[in-house]
Batch of 2 targets.
Target 1
Amino acid sequence: MALDTAWVTAWINRSTEVISENRVALITLDRDIGDGDHGENMDRGFQAVSTKLDTLSPDATPGDALKLVATTLISTVGGAAGPLYGTAYLKAAAAVGSAPELDGAAIVALLTAARDGIVLRGKAESGDKTMVDAWTPAVEAAEIAQQAGSSEVEILAAAADAAEAGAVATEPLVARKGRASYLGERAIGHRDPGAQSSALLLRAAADTAAGE
Ligand code: ADP
Ligand code: MG
């Protein structure tokens, strides 16, 4: 589908479904190396976002939709993830400006701004076992795909693949940010819940763009 406001809405509604389906899995991951609330926080936040998106004005741009997602997540998710994801969607909204439809360069700009927002807010570096470990490979893969002349759908699929691999690659790491950092070596062998939820959100973006 064209990457317009209807796509952003479809992406976010798919995110809500996928987060709801993975609520228990995310709770389990966060119970292993955190406080067990990540699935609950994300599910509550995205349910609120989907309700809010129904009130979006018909002439809203993709940026307007992303901004509504941001403000709703900030006020409903809580924990570490709420402000981090809120900042991600807010920066993504700013990056796409008032464009009615997003091309490959705009998608790369959206993903880069989201990742930069998370880094700005949380100060995590690659390898700290956080959601940044899903986002940075996703941004890099999207850039490579875009430079190779790939379609928007292919760019998003490359980002989603890289985010999933990045989430898996958090398993052997020791955490240096967030609650999991209190565990030291006991975090080894567990996947970071925020990296996992990030991979789910990026897969939802790719699947809806592909019309799946
Ligand atoms: P809390 O840790 O407050 O319970 P959540 O469980 O909702 O919040 O989210 C935890 C996730 O947030 C972690 O799995 C990690 O991916 C992410 N996170 C925590 N701190 C940071 C940070 N400083 N930078 C980036 N991501 C972080
Ligand atoms: Mg938690």
Target 2
Amino acid sequence: MVVKLDVSGVGMTSQRTRNRLTDRLREQGILSEAVLQVMASTPRHLFVDEALAHRAYEDTALPIGNSQTISQPYIVARMTELLFRDAQPESVLEVGTGSGYQTAILAQLVDQVFTVERISKLLDRALGRFRQLGLHQIKSKYDDGHLGWAEKGPFDAIIVTASPREVPSALLAQLAPGGRLIIPIGDPETQTLTMVERSSDGFDTTLVEPVRFVPLLGGKL
Ligand code: SAH
């Protein structure tokens, strides 16, 4: 039997439905056409269970198992746009692979993407999706992302898609000079999307906007 990969999508996963989502992101203030284009062409429905595929182009987080969620498209767009504003990072570290959707978006915009996930089941599924979509430039590691990925650093950009109370020091150490870290900081109820830039004499912090992410947890599962 030949299994046909439904990358193009029909009905609720069609290109028209996807364009409606990016139109909405534009209205919400996403300015980067490069980011919007990649989001319009990436099949988000392949990153959720088939039973939820019809909701994949709603601007909402959705469950992906193990009490985790695929991030809301607006947040993915916003975080990606912040990484690329006035910058062209060549290497990006992502902490929290989850479904792999954010990873797939990044992989279409930079040469090298490194991603770390602490739940092996989610990582295995994400890797299957990268293979399906031919995204071979993604390197992954099953580990606690608090540690970053020292052997592959320093990174021009680091994106964390789960929320710690404070910025993990290993991630700051692995940020290249001029590099940028985007991370939701706070407690489970109140978090602020935070941008940390490494300058010649230290770190500059900018608070971006309130967000809600699952917590950054320790250890492996
Ligand atoms: N970028 C993902 C977001 C998934 S939710 C997506 O769009 O699908 C956040 C993910 O971070 C979860 O998969 C969770 O398991 C992972 N995570 C939480 N703490 C972590 C840690 N310490 N190291 C690595 N991954 C972690």
